[in-house]
Input
Amino acid sequence: MIVAVDYKAGNLTSVQLAFEHLGEKVLITDKPGDILRAERVVFPGVGAAGAAMANLRSLGLIEPIREVIERGTPFLGICIGIQLLLGYSDEDGGVECTGIVKGRAKKFSSADPMCKIPQMGWNGLSFTRSHPLLEGIENQSEFYFVHSYYPAVEDESIVIGRTDYADVNFAAMIARGNLAAVQFHPERSGRIGLKMLANFAKWEGTC
Amino acid sequence: MLTKRIIPCLDVRDRKVTKGVKFQNNIELGDPIEMAVAYSDGGCDELVFYDITASAQRRPIDIEMVREVAKVVHIPFAVGGGIENLEDMRRVLLAGAEKVSVNSLAVRNPKIIAEGAREFGAQCIVLGMDPVKVEDLQKFPSGYEITIRGFRERTGIDALEWAKQAEGLGAGEIVVNSVDADGTREGFELNLTRLISTSVRIPVVASGGAGEPRHLAEVFTAGKADAAIIASMIHTGQYTIRQIKDELIGANIHIRKKW
Output
């Protein structure tokens, strides 16, 4: 069973419906025990980093998340999920995050007044290497993004795909062992996004 | 590079998609769920549903329809019409919509934009506006006045002022639906779209008047729109989304090519 972590950061309906469409069962939960028992963990969410971290902390979910990642459970962070895996976010005046991946979430800024923030819409993912989650997906495929902050990771070797926006070329997909995370929303990215989720549903957590 | 979005609009009345001209003389076109799946499979980038009579009839939005759409459509979609408060927004978003669109409600109660953005995130809150061209530039410096309740009522509010106010309140996106162009299929209202899109930092969606692919090319270049809503030109079967996108590729517009 796939367990989706519910820490009151937005709406998990679309993640649940996307997996159900693929014939997968999803348990939406805020209980540490459910996460620790999961076969696979999805860590989704939208919204602000400050409130999201505060909720994770008060629900006691940070340690279980760290534990399943260390233990080898296939794990997929989505949107704010990728940012919370980093050490720090510039959002909300600066927020200490989980630090599971070295890096920092930075805000888009652009001198071009026509560059809209948030980035909202479909943008291409340039693969930097192959990965089981990309099986059957063409390089440069477009995914749906909605975000004002982007992940800046320190370890280049974990970057799987990059995307250009607001004069930056950022890591839109990262992976390390059983951990994968994406800035875009595969659950909103049509057939190609569903393909990535289907790949995750059968992924053993190895690269 | 971020692509320009093409968004079919489904005006729904009693579970049927309808389309009128300048908000009048609506005819029935089909089942909203079937049409949504066909457009999503056909390559549209997002969808918007307006429960067009909910607001006028003062009845709640059709949540069951939103749920059914969310089960079969895995691209973003927005829902508008009949949203009266935060609870309505919550129901629509939990049913699986990516965004909610407020229009008349936001004019009556602008605070709802800020409250919705705080509660659900700015990216969920779309301000829809129905501006009409006016002569009185003293009262309306942009040359456009906001109307509400499907053009039934004028508000005395300047369109550009309202767009800036909505951005300040936390709207994540603005849909500019020209009353003058709606359903005419003679092209988008380029001036107002450009005026608003160059005055705010949030995405602006042009709506009303799309009849040919070149109208979309115009609104993405001259109109500076981030996305464009289409209705009649695909509802009638005159164009497929593939045909529209092929023409846009030919015009060097950056759009999503594979789906």
